[in-house]
Give the backbone structure.
Amino acid sequence: MDQSSSTFNETVWEEGNRIVLPVLEGDIECDVCVIGLGGSGLTAIIELLGLGQRVAGIDAGVVGGGAAGRNGGLLLAGWSSFYHQSVEKYGRERALGLYLRTLEQRDMMIDEAPDAIRLTGSLRIASNDEEMADCRNQFEAMRADDLPVAEYIGPEGEGLMIPTDGVYNPLLRCRILAKRATAAGAMLFEKSPALNISGSRVETANGVINCRKVIVAVDGGLENVLPELSGRVRTARLQMIGTAPTDEVKFTRPVYYRWGSNTGNSCQMAGLLSVECGISAAMRNGRINRFPAMRSRRVLRSFFAQSWAFKRRSLIAGPPWPPSTVRESRS
Ligand SMILES: Cc1cc2nc3c(=O)[nH]c(=O)nc-3n(C[C@H](O)[C@H](O)[C@H](O)COP(=O)(O)OP(=O)(O)OC[C@H]3O[C@@H](n4cnc5c(N)ncnc54)[C@H](O)[C@@H]3O)c2cc1C
């Protein structure tokens, strides 16, 4: 499908600032060829350029045309489980190390593309007493390791605030990185799917890249790009439904409700959404649900009860966070 056409389901992050890259035509040479111009591939390209490598990058569609340009835009520190769960699973030292690495990564992302990122903090709202007790465990574990966290009481309910989290525009970020890479000398091509890949040669329909190394930075469908991985890699589907902007619900930061995610059961109900940018999404078991026109906590309950599962991922940090309790009211 032509991802540049208006009939392609357009990401909610589209702001009309698309960059247009050429199709690869003819043969070129470089040190490293990166396949896939999503967040991973572009990050690899920037890193390689910093190491003085001659780099070429190709995408089957357009820059950020995959998940990297159409995801939820949540920028959350830590692992896929809540911090205290990570400590239990990996041990305190490793859990803390992982958390801090994601904070470092956040800082790097801010340096790279400050216009695409907002440090809003995120909320974990308890749905019942049991979850509230778990929030307290998380609070204690984070505080014990001097990680920024506060108890939260506000219009969304009660729980925790992680002040170092935030939101980002993933598509804008990809475009900023692609522009930077091109300006720094990378040869980037769109609509040039890799058809044959070996360690030193990548073939597309109209050209060939001869190189010393190949990096395949393709998330979904990796087993199709590298058939030798089928059986070891299996693509799972996540859904993101963009609707027309709504003012029925407005969250100013990412909110997790009903345990957010649950390791061991990735289909556990989870909530997210940064609705400030006009995204609304409600999907579960492949069924699209409508947002009910209700407010605050009731809205959250209802929305997240219908919401689609999502695993807590990656990064973002900010200033030190002294208060132990944050109280907010909504005007
Ligand atoms: C619905 C959803 C919501 C998400 N929400 C969040 C979130 O809120 N926060 C967060 O941090 N993460 C989120 N994620 C995860 C995040 O989007 C992915 O981890 C990330 O985008 C992976 O980036 P990538 O560059 O590895 O892959 P992709 O973005 O998939 O990029 C791979 C690129 O490779 C290209 N490609 C494929 N085959 C070929 C080929 N043969 N030749 C050349 N190019 C090819 C594709 O066109 C694509 O552009 C979400 C994911 C989904 C699906």
Summary: Residues 81-168+238-327 form one domain. Residues 35-41, 58-61, 65-68, 71-74, 193-194, 217-221, 225, 238-240, 313-314 surround flavin-adenine dinucleotide (CB under 6 Å).
